[in-house]
Design brief:
The chain is mainly α. The protein has two domains: 117 residues, no CATH class; 80 residues, Orthogonal Bundle (Arc Repressor Mutant, subunit A). Helix 1 crosses helix 11, helix 2 packs across helix 3 and helix 6 packs antiparallel against helix 7. The structure holds a DNA duplex.
DNA sequence: AACGTAGACAACCGCCTTGTA
DNA sequence: ATACAAGGCGGTTGTCTACGT
């Protein structure tokens, strides 16, 4: 077996497009297979993570709403750090997102407590008040959802932005797709034998044409 | 204007679980 | 029943941006 070098670090728009296309074709299960046939030099794990945390059509992007924050608090007090379990109760949110939110929140809280302990005159209720105020401010910030993505344009200006991708994915979800995104392929292609698909997509040329087909489908 | 800091988020790592041959 | 591969999950780290000084 030849040891393959896998790419690491941030995903490019090209990679995202490729991944979206191939998940559309093969479904979001066989990640190692998708990683191979797509020609992405990423591990299956990496592909899955990117899909689950960023590209999945059902995801909400942007800050948690105060309602969601309350729910996270409530569920965390019940279940502890069972992020995936908590995430299941917040449609469109990922375990990673909630984990990140919680981490930030706890750090802030810890700092406030430390400050409160340092200056005994300031009551703890003040600190908790300020933290809840902070949380409420998040709603305003939700306007900035997917800001970062917009900034990604810088290296692919004339290309197809992730905003566009999400728009298209959203449209596909609403207008075309019954329930799962990969059903845009009328054929259950992911049922095909691995050998069979190797013949279909032996190298990236074929992969690319498939990817182009996929992105053409996505863009309309 | 420059610099430092905190917050937000993406991504990786390692362990555990589950499915399959 | 068992070994192996793949997927899932939680913890952690790195990077970028906004904001305050």
């Amino acid at each position: 077996m030849v040891h393959q070098e896998f790419r690491k670090g941030p995903w490019t728009e090209q990679e995202d497009l490729k991944l979206v296309s191939f998940v559309g074709l093969f479904g979001d299960r066989r990640w190692d297979f998708i990683a191979k046939v797509s020609g992405l030099t990423r591990t299956g794990k990496s592909c899955r993570l990117r899909w689950v945390n960023y590209l999945h059509p059902g995801l909400k992007h942007g800050k948690l709403t105060p309602q969601e924050e309350r729910l996270v608090m409530e569920l965390h007090s019940k279940w502890g750090n069972r992020w995936s379990r908590i995430a299941r109760k917040l449609p469109g949110r990922t375990d990673n997102e909630i984990k990140n939110y919680w981490r930030t929140h706890m750090r802030k809280k810890a700092q406030e407590e430390k400050r409160a302990a340092a200056s005994p005159t300031s009551s703890s209720c003040q600190s908790s008040l300020s933290s809840s105020n902070n949380n409420n401010n998040h709603t305003v910030n939700s306007v900035h959802a997917s800001k970062k993505v917009g900034e990604d344009h810088q290296d692919g200006e004339e290309g197809y932005s992730m905003d566009d991708i999400w728009k298209d994915i959203g449209m596909l979800e609403e207008n075309i797709l019954p329930s799962t995104s990969w059903e845009y392929s009328s054929e259950p292609l992911w049922m095909m034998d691995e050998e069979e698909s190797k013949m279909l997509f032996p190298l990236s040329d074929q992969c690319f044409s498939c990817y182009e087909h996929g992105s053409a489908f996505l863009t309309g």
